[in-house]
Every structure is written in C-alpha cells, then in structure tokens.
C-alpha cells in the first residue's frame, strides 16, 4: 500500500506549479499598477502601493482558493489516482491535507509580501484595536482567528466535496429525469446554506475584529462547531467515495 507521506508530495507538485504562476501574475499586476500610477501622477505614494497590494492579493487569494478547490475535486474521478494502491480514506485525507498545505504556502507568501510592502512604505502591517494593551491577548486573538479561518476553509472544501460526491452518487443510481429534479432541489438548498454560512462567517470576523465581544467561551464553542461539522462532512465524503463514486470512463 502507498504511504500517506508518499501521496502528499505527489499531489503537491501540480498545486505548487499552479500557485507559483498565480503568485507571479499577482506580483506583475502590483508592479504594473504601481508603475502606471507613478507615471500618471508623476509622484510616488506609499499608500497607493499598499492599496494595490491589498487589492491584487485579495483577488489572487480568491483565484488560488478556486484553483485549489478544482484540484481537490479532480481527484475523485481521476483514473490514475483512484487506481493507486491506497485506501480511499488515505487518498481523500492526503488530498485534503495537500490542498491545505498549498493554501498555507500561498498565505505565507502573501504575508511576507505585505510585510515587505509595509517596510518599504513605512506603514504598519495591521492595525489591531479593541483588545486592550495586553500583547498576550492580541496574540491569542490572532491565533484563534487564524484557527477559525482555517476551520472555515476546510469546512468549505468538505462542503464542496460533499455536494460534488452527492451529485456523482445521484448520477450513478437515478435516471436522467429524476436527476434533474433532485439537482434542482439540491441547488436551492445549497444556495440557501451558502448564504447562511457566509453571513455567519462575516459575523464571526466582525466579532473578532471588535475585540471578542461575545467572549472567549462563545468563540471557542463556535470553533468547536466548525471543526465538528467539517469532521462529519469528511466522514460522509469518504463513505460516498468508497461506496458510490467510480473513476471517469
């Protein structure tokens, strides 16, 4: 059987190539926009550089997330990957871990870029308000905020996979006419769920930025709920992958 540690580097190669292309395009866009602004205004502005970096970094993050999601979903029906002598559980978890590693790599690159830009412009990398003067409180808040973001992203990927695998399972068992009906119902339910999840996420973000007004207990409970939901979805995905999803013909 193929080891978990052997699958992760194999899955990472294509993801890293794609992410590096996105990073290169992001840097080109930032430099080109700044050069154009300097030529147009005949003056350099540090605030402009920070604004362009933030803009293109945000767009690049969205593209990277979508690209990684595509890599994540392609595994389920990929002939060569599904025929690897490894269990579906091992393939699914190594695929998910690889996707997360890719995103963390991209986030580190963006953090370093913003740090460099802040040093060049002489502006603060981030403004943290509402947490008092305790550095320990600020550090704890950053850690829990990062944990919630990662848990939310993993849950989002698990939800996307769950939807995808349910669709594949429907295709395997239902006639075309009934497939359309079930798909229509699922699209309505999924759209509503995405809107609700988005509202919850922005509420969480606003709470964290305003100094944890809900209190640590509520935030940690919310983090636990995110982890639990993600774990349940992962289990459901592995079950569907084992029982109903075949390689593409």
The number of distinct helices, counting runs of at least 4 residues, comes to 7
Q: How many strands, what sense, and barrel or not for the largest sheet?
A: none
Q: What separation lies between the terminal Cα atoms?
A: 24 Å
Mean pLDDT: 78
SSE order in H/E notation? HHHHHHH
**Structural class of the secondary structure composition?**
mainly alpha
What structural keywords apply?
single chain, 249 residues, mainly alpha
Any overview of this molecule?
It is a single chain. The protein is mainly α and 249 residues long. It folds into two domains: 1-127, no CATH class; 130-248, no CATH class. It has seven helices and no strands. It has helices spanning 4-41, 46-74, 79-82, 88-121, 135-173, 176-209, 216-243. α2 (46-74) runs antiparallel to α4 (88-121) and α4 (88-121) crosses α7 (216-243). It is globular and about 65 Å long. The chain crosses the membrane at residues 21-39, 51-70, 91-117, 137-163, 184-204, 216-240. It comes from Secundilactobacillus pentosiphilus. Keywords: Membrane, Transmembrane, Transmembrane helix. This is ABC transporter permease protein.
């Amino acid at each position: 059987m193929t080891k978990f540690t052997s699958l992760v580097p194999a899955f990472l190669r294509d993801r890293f190539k794609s992410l590096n292309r996105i990073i290169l395009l992001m840097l080109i866009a930032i430099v080109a926009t700044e050069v154009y602004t300097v030529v147009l205004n005949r003056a350099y502005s540090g605030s402009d550089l920070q604004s362009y970096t933030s803009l293109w970094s945000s767009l690049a993050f969205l593209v990277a997330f979508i690209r990684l999601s595509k890599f994540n979903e392609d595994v389920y029906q990929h002939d060569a990957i599904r025929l690897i002598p490894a269990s579906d559980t091992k393939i699914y978890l190594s695929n998910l871990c690889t996707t997360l590693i890719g995103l963390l790599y991209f986030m580190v690159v963006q953090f370093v870029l913003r740090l460099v830009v802040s040093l060049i412009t002489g502006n603060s990398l981030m403004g943290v308000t509402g947490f008092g003067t305790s550095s320990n409180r600020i550090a704890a808040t950053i850690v829990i905020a990062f944990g919630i973001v990662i848990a939310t992203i993993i849950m989002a990927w698990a939800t996307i996979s769950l939807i995808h695998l349910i669709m594949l399972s429907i295709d395997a068992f239902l006639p075309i006419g009934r497939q359309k009906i079930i798909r229509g119902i699922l699209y309505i339910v999924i759209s509503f769920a995405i809107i609700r999840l988005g509202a919850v996420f922005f509420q969480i973000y606003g709470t964290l930025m305003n100094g944890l007004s809900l209190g640590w207990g509520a935030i940690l409970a919310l983090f636990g709920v995110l982890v639990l939901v993600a774990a349940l979805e992962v289990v459901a995905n592995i079950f569907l992958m084992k029982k109903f999803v075949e390689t593409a013909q």
